[in-house]
Amino acid sequence: MQIANRTSYRVIYGDTDQMGVVYYANYLRWFESGRSEFLREIGVPYTTVERQGLHFPVVQVICRYVQSAHYDDVVQIETTLVELGRATLKFIYQITRESDGALLARGETEHACIDSTGRITRIPQILMDVLRPRSD
């Protein structure tokens, strides 16, 4: 399974450190932005999942930094769902600079589906229906 989404983001001054380089933790925020846009694009925004009393906390994250992003760069965030389990999701990401296509970072996140009490539960059916279409 591989379903992908691409979104862009312009680096603001507040994203950078004293050297004018994007602070490393902001790449994780961009991963989150990519996931949110991914869910919105497939028609199941995160708010829909939350209304069912469910959440997708990150249980593991990996980020490999390749090149630096700087103030006013426009970055492309490519988010791909690569695994969908009964109660888990796994996404991979590529962050590139729009102006020259340079790879800035790549990474992955793994998520559990939990209910409002923090117990692991199944991925909601509304999401499964979109991600695993039934064949008739």
Describe what you observe in this structure.
The chain has 136 residues and is of the alpha+beta class. It has one domain (3-131): Hotdog Thioesterase (Thiol Ester Dehydrase, Chain A, Roll). The protein is 21% helix and 35% strand. The chain is built from 3 helices and 5 strands, in the order E-H-H-E-E-E-E-H. It has helices spanning 26-41, 46-51, 125-131; strands at residues 3-10, 58-65, 74-84, 88-97, 103-112. A 5-stranded antiparallel β-sheet has the order 1-3-4-5-2, with helices on one face. The protein is elongated, with a radius of gyration of 16 Å. The mean pLDDT is 93.
Give the rounded overall mean pLDDT.
93
CATH class: Alpha Beta
How large is the share of residues in beta strands?
25-35%
Give the count of structural domains.
1
Uncertain residue ranges = none
The number of E-state strands comes to 5
Distance between the termini: 19 Å
Name the overall outline: elongated
- Helix content estimate: 10-25%
Strand order of the largest sheet: 1-3-4-5-2
CATH homologous superfamily grouping: Hotdog Thioesterase
CATH architecture: Roll
CATH level 3 topology: Thiol Ester Dehydrase, Chain A
Number of helices, counting only DSSP H or I runs of 4 residues or more: 3
SSE pattern: EHHEEEEH
Structural class: alpha+beta
Please give the radius of gyration in angstroms. Answer: 16 Å
Taking the sheet with the most strands, its summary is: 5 strands, antiparallel
